[in-house]
Amino acid sequence: MIQRVPRVLVPAALPLLLSACMLGPDYVKPPPVAEAAQAQPQLHRADDVAAAAGVVPAPPPQRWWETLQDPQLDALVEQALQNSPNLRAAQAKLRASRALVQQRHAEQLPSVGATAAYLNARAPDALTDGVASIAAGTGQPLTIDPHAQLYSVGIDASWELDFFGRRRRASEGALADAQADEAELADTQVQLAAEVGQAYLGYRGTRERIAIAQRNLEAARQTLQLTRQRRERGADADLQVERAQAQLQQQEAVLPDLQAQAKEALDQLALMIGREPGALDATLAQDRPLPALPAVVPVDDAGSLIRRRPDVRRAERQLASSSAQIGQALSAYFPQVTLFGTIGMAATSPGDLGSDAVNSVVAPFLRWSIFDFGATRAKVEQARAGNDARLAAYEGTVLAALQDANSALARFGAARQQALAAAKAEASADRSAALLQQRYAAGASSLIDALDVQRQQASAQDSAVQARTQVLLRYVALQKSLGLGWAPPPPPAPR
């Protein structure tokens, strides 16, 4: 005995029937790249630099700049994350991609519209005169109204029956693209925070070097003056005067370049926070010491690094989008079925618009490019090749991320060792200067000797400042390589 399906269940079953067939591969996240490296409890180079660089296996803080405890740096990073033109551009791109997701979702639903029309037509005089002459010849009364009016109102709808998943794959791809743009926004934040940190720390280091160069310049001037006096007394030859003059000119050549570097850093910082050149000159005019590194530097394992880095997430979401494009391309092999329907009323006067004036039309429409299989095959092949390229790009991004983090860790460890060596050399130069100053006070050494030692001391101080600045810059580069400095974007507006 055949049982009929109740009609009321047909609309409920229709979405299930439509979703039963969706062409193309269902996206599956690719297997881990460099699985052995990601399974390790810490990064490859962590053991090599842990002792010298203070690296400990622990989750690092997202807001890494706060570990340097510099209020001006904190303020600059916050301003950049709020006002940077590059960041606003990435945010606008994300809003556009989210809007496209809503559009693709809406395209799966029926499209309904309302229509209203008014027609006023007047018959030509030749037609009315012809009808009148025919009526006169037949002797029968026959008239025609030269004016005609038509009023029409209605509702129409169309719905593409997504039998093969073209619309759903498009929606799936749009969602993956939006998630990729979210990761791109996070990556922009990572890059921006690091660039602000490096520009600020470079500026502070340059300011310290300017102060040292000015002291060294003054010492060179005093040395030249004393050497000239000794030459006038016959105690020194012209050669010593020329050497002192050369030292002074070398110091004079150093200062302008340092001052230009400081001004350039200020303008870079102003640009990154969305301000005009010179906007930070007064704010950052007062000299401040370079911030100190934290006592310990937490660095977690490679697996956490890969999950956290926004560029890896972006590459994975772009791979998901390219997978959906394969299904879209395959759907071109099959027909597109669209239902069109309209219901309305039409009458010659508004008063006649009623139940007797109702008309309706329902029309399925099939479109099938049956002779374009060659072009369709080429598009499918393009989509598959694009997906393979995205997979290779994803694997390359993961490997590059691991390489970046390990290299940054190695450079940070080396910079910290160099900073320790430079600090020892500075301490030794300070002790030498103190000892010679005692000898000069006791009359056992000349002022020229004391000034020469002061010059050597200033040179050691300059090298130490450069080393401290370098280790701070390497610290920022390490935080950047770990994918730190981003915050999740606000959720999309409800549809």
Notable characteristics:
62% helix; Outer membrane efflux proteins (OEP); disordered N terminus; 6 strands; two-stranded parallel ribbon; alpha+beta
* CATH fold-level label: Outer membrane efflux proteins (OEP)
Radius of gyration: 39 Å
What is the rounded distance between the termini?
47 Å
Outline the low-pLDDT stretches.
1-5, 7-18
Helix content, binned percent: 55-70%
Give the CATH level 1 class: Mainly Alpha
Provide the residue-averaged pLDDT. Answer: 85
Describe this structure in words.
Mean pLDDT is 85; it is low at 1-5 and 7-18. A 4-stranded antiparallel sheet has the order 2-3-5-6, with no helix packed on it. Strands 1-4 form a two-stranded parallel sheet. It has a single domain (21-108, 163-335, 374-481), classed as Outer membrane efflux proteins (OEP). It is built from 12 helices and 6 strands. Helix 4 (71-83) runs antiparallel to helix 7, helix 7 runs antiparallel to helix 8 and helix 10 packs antiparallel against helix 11. It is 62% helix and 11% strand. By secondary structure, the chain is α+β, with helices and mostly antiparallel strands. It has helices spanning 9-19, 35-38, 46-53, 71-83, 85-106, 125-138, 166-232, 238-272, 302-308, 310-330, 373-441, 447-481, and strands at 55-57, 111-122, 147-161, 297-299, 336-347, 358-367. The radius of gyration is 39 Å and the shape is elongated.
